[in-house]
Amino acid sequence: MKKLLVVFDVEGVLLPKWRYIPFEVSRKLGVLKFLKILLIGILYEIGAMSLESALRQIYKNFKGYTIEELRHYYERLPLIQDVKETFRRLKEKGCKIALISSGLPQLFIRELAEKLDADYAYGIELKTLNGKFNGEIGGTVIKKNGKSLVLKKIQKTENLRPENCILVADDRNNLQMFPHVGLKIGFNPDFILTAKADHIVTEKLSEILPIIFKEENKKHGIGLSKNEIIRSIIHIGGLLTIIPCIYLITPHLMAFLILAVAALYTASELARMQGLNFPPFTSITTKAAVKLELYEFALAPICYALGIALSLLIFPQNIAYATIAILTLGDGSASILGKLLGKTAYPFNKAKHIEGTIIGLIFAFLGATAFLNPAKALVGATVGMLVECFPLPINDNLAVPLISGFALTVIP
């Protein structure tokens, strides 16, 4: 078997994304600095700041911390499910493994590499003075195209060509390495990697193994997990928010009630990130969370609540109710049944299947016809399901009702 190099991004693939800095290290910084760090993270995510600028601004907040203090918070981070088993299998097959992080200190990445028996480890260099971090960072990985430079250095050392290299990553900062690898795997990727990766993995990291070694993938035919069933019931159950609006209260009042619940949920997630229980939200999140949400701030429910609430606030009643039906019945059934029955992935979004879209379109249309004439219901359902199948920077739970609602508003 030919020698392979498997390159892993770290945050979001091996460790929870955006946990170390916002929710662990910032415990001692106070609310204002915590919010500042979150804002910088958002500015980077939307492309308003470069990675290097964002990281330098964030790490300045930890000036004066000792390395041991930073390590204490790093050690609180859990490994993503089945990372150790995946690495063990890769090593058994003779693969070389590299960890390349542009967000965590190299010292800790090296310790992680030793723990997982990886061969290479690269991260941010922390500058210290008298045993304390002085707020300055460096290293190749934070520079423009820094990760690709590191990768090419490893390839030269191992005498490997790009076609013998595999990349497993989750966000656009890793696009720079795409020209230098033969196989690109997106692990719970952002919308850009969803469109550009060769394969998409959305559950266990071990699902990369049959892709890498060209083994038969037995994913199809499996059922939904208990968490996914609960999540699906909650998602489709959102349709019931229409009933009080028709018989008991105004749509605007219902929207504000939903937003109030969303605010409580946000508080519960912030508490959960700090290891605190916030009943009943924490227990519901634990039972309904899927993928990496148990390790990170679960944002999807907030987008879902906003999608329904904004529809009730913005659109005329019949259109608002139709968009909620498209979201709950259409998007919900497309996700569930696409997972169970889907076999034909979209070339532009390998995480979604044509079969799921067709099923979602049927349910969305049936739901929307309760509030609109069939022709208009079909337009709304079609727009909603097109939005659902394309990789977008906005969460589906927010994009589907808003875009389909605006489409229904402008057509006669």
What's the short version?
This protein is of the alpha/beta class. It is 53% helix and 13% strand.
Notes on the protein architecture:
The chain is of the alpha/beta class and 412 residues long. It has 2 domains: 5-212, Rossmann fold (3-Layer(aba) Sandwich); 226-410, no CATH class. It is built from 18 helices and 9 strands. A 7-stranded mixed β-sheet has the order 4-3-2-1-5-6-7, sandwiched between helices. Helix 8 (191-196) links the parallel strand 6 and strand 7. Helix 12 packs antiparallel against helix 14 (300-314). The radius of gyration is 23 Å and the shape is globular.
What is the succession of H and E elements? EHHHHHEHEEHEEHEHHHHHHHEEHHH
What does the radius of gyration come to?
23 Å
Level of helix content?
Answer: 40-55%
- How would a crystallographer describe the biggest sheet? 7 strands, mixed
Number of helices: 18
Strand residue percentage: 5-15%
The main sheet orders its strands as 4-3-2-1-5-6-7
Task: List the SSEs and their pairings.
Blueprint: E1 5-9, H1 20-24, H2 31-45, H3 51-59, H4 67-74, H5 83-92, E2 96-105, H6 106-116, E3 120-129, E4 132-138, H7 146-158, E5 165-169, E6 183-187, H8 191-196, E7 199-201, H9 208-212, H10 226-237, H11 242-247, H12 251-273, H13 281-288, H14 300-314, H15 317-341, E8 345-346, E9 349-353, H16 354-368, H17 374-389, H18 396-410
Parallel strand pairs: 1-2, 1-5, 2-3, 5-6, 6-7
Antiparallel strand pairs: 3-4, 8-9
Helix pairs in contact: 2-3, 10-15, 12-14, 14-15, 14-18, 15-16, 15-17, 15-18, 16-17, 17-18
